[in-house]
Amino acid sequence: MKMPGSLTLPQTDAATNKAAGKSDRKEEPGFFLERLQSPTAHDIAAIGDLWYKSGLTGPGYDAGRDLATCLNSGRGSVILARSAKDATIIGTIMAGHDGESGWVHYLAVANDARGTGLGSGLLALAEDILAATGLAVNKVTVTDPTVHDFYRKLGYEIVETVPRTNTQISEIGTDFVVMRKRLKS
């Protein structure tokens, strides 16, 4: 199911268009959103590649396993952002809940789409989905300290730091934090 892009990339305003000799017609969004329901092998490979390039997983990680777990749980959704030009996957977010708290995972945006607001837009959509389920809190696990500020600016606070143990296998990072935000109901 394709969802028309209620999120849009920054638009050029009418005055700038007029000065440049362009029409006042609004530009089409550079992407569209899709709720993933039955991923193809191509989708799974593209999602895995995006997660790897975004630093969320290591090489050879089985994205299909996590996608299947989410989609088969009855408590989760995977939202994709695809380029309007060629339907390439340029963003992902996985949203689900454990009955008490919402959780988001795999928020990833392709390098050439970063800085457009797509990541914060995907997160806002996931939060809306979770709030509509009746959840009051959303949580996210963050392994990359450089991402903390992104979530802080969007209202998240660190509630726990978890040191990794030698028994945990991870290709990325050592410690991680859990961040939380109260959702609007």
TrEMBL record:
<dbReference type="InterPro" id="IPR000182">
    <property type="entry name" value="GNAT_dom"/>
</dbReference>
<dbReference type="InterPro" id="IPR016181">
    <property type="entry name" value="Acyl_CoA_acyltransferase"/>
</dbReference>
<dbReference type="Pfam" id="PF13508">
    <property type="entry name" value="Acetyltransf_7"/>
</dbReference>
<feature type="domain" description="N-acetyltransferase">
    <location>
        <begin position="34"/>
        <end position="184"/>
    </location>
</feature>
<protein>
    <recommendedName>
        <fullName>N-acetyltransferase domain-containing protein</fullName>
    </recommendedName>
</protein>
<feature type="region of interest" description="Disordered">
    <location>
        <begin position="1"/>
        <end position="28"/>
    </location>
</feature>
